[in-house]
Amino acid sequence: MLDQLHDYRRIALEELAVVADAATLEAWYRAHLAPSGKATGWKRNIGKLPVAERKGFGQSVNEVTAELEKAFQLHKRRIDLLELEKRILAEATDVTLPARGVARGGHHPVTLALREVIGVFEQMGFVVYESPHVELDELNFELLNMPPDHPARDMQDTFYVDDDVVLRTHTSSGQVRAMRQLCPGPVRVILPGLCYRHENITPRSEIQFHQIEGLLVGPEVRLSDLKGVLLKFARALFGPNQAIRMRGSYFPFTEPSCEVDIRCTLCGGNGCRVCKQSGWLELLGAGLVHPVVLRNGGYDPTQVRGIAFGMGIERLVLLRHGIDDIRLIFQNDLRFLRQFA
Ligand code: PHE
Question: pLDDT value at position 79?
Fold first, then answer.
């Protein structure tokens, strides 16, 4: 019996010696020292021995149990240290790793273009004038010489809020507001912002887009000012040799009216796919402010004249970056936008 006890002691200590983690140690404890464990089991064997042997064997069992208990406590301290070391290593910061990049935002290409264009006109003395996106029909159309049923309204498919209120179809809707506020003084404003049209969404048209309108009113204003301002603008944006041309056109709120083209920025005027072999790209609509509009703004058309022009900002972005689909601008796909950051 004593031999068996010592065999057991040796095996138990050997098992303990190879325990390397807290979970196995816990299992070892349950197998040996817990109330249902083997060491405790030996105590129950004491009663089976002849009375004379009980005392001596009981002592041996107690010694073995105490030794296992002590060995367990010692080993537990080692395992605790090992576990701590493992945790520290797992949580440690490797200061030699390269730093994680900081995610930086960027401006939308339309915002960038707006700011640049506004900057160019501010240099020429224009100030920004903001007007509502949800606008009276009166200001978007009627006071611009487009009474109800005027055929020119068909040029701009309109979102109606109700009979008298529309989402502005162009920034020209701010012309009369600006004139009425500044009259009888001179007007030198640009009106930037979103416009809305009830269009099919295609690579060439969107239901929302940005325009910048320019309006200059004063006693000495004439058509050559329009040409000068726009040439200066085109050269600021596209380089000092940029050419422009004016073509006769029609808008109800200007007379005469024109469309202004820039020499194709891709082929330099030789003709390419983008300018459809014409060598020119349409940039904006413009003209002398119609006398009716001047009068609606509070001015006497025999005393002052005005020039006005309006251009699409998205078109500018597409042209400058050689993009052929306006829808990309509003999809806000980060893969597209990041290229401008
Ligand atoms: N409002 C016109 C458009 O959206 C552009 C324009 C503005 C034309 C000012 C003449 C003068 O097409």
Answer: 93
